[in-house]
Design goal:
Layout (H helix, E strand, L loop, with lengths): L1 H5 L2 H23 L3 H9 L4 H19 L4 H23 L5 H8 L4
Length: 110
């Protein structure tokens, strides 16, 4: 349920920015969300990043409350997260096009 609720959010934001421009991107973004979630986001007294981070930390705390991970498993997750961030930095450093061109190519209709 949680993954389904949040999985399409980055795509909606990019699509809204590309097709509606900076002035209409928020409305386009909100129009693509489940109505209850869009209302929750509109009523939040913070920006989207703070809202999403708060939701992510709440989900983390919920799942941590269900069962404690062994220290070795926790260390493995920390290592994987660090390696993932390093790979992401390498990917971004190797980019040969700008974000605007990437977004245009991503949403290009054949």
């Amino acid at each position: 349920m949680l993954a389904r609720r949040f999985a399409h959010i980055p795509c909606l934001g990019l699509r809204g920015l590309l097709y509606a421009g900076p002035d209409g991107s928020i409305d386009a973004f909100l129009a693509g969300l489940e109505p209850e979630f869009a209302d929750e986001l509109r009523q939040a007294e913070c920006g989207f990043f703070d809202f999403a981070m708060s939701a992510a930390l709440g989900h983390r705390d919920y799942f941590r409350s269900l069962v404690a991970l062994p220290e070795a498993r926790e260390a493995e997750f920390e290592r994987e997260a660090t390696e993932s961030l390093e790979r992401q930095r390498d990917i971004e450093a190797a980019d040969d096009i700008g974000l605007d061109e990437y977004i245009a190519r991503y949403f290009e209709i054949d």
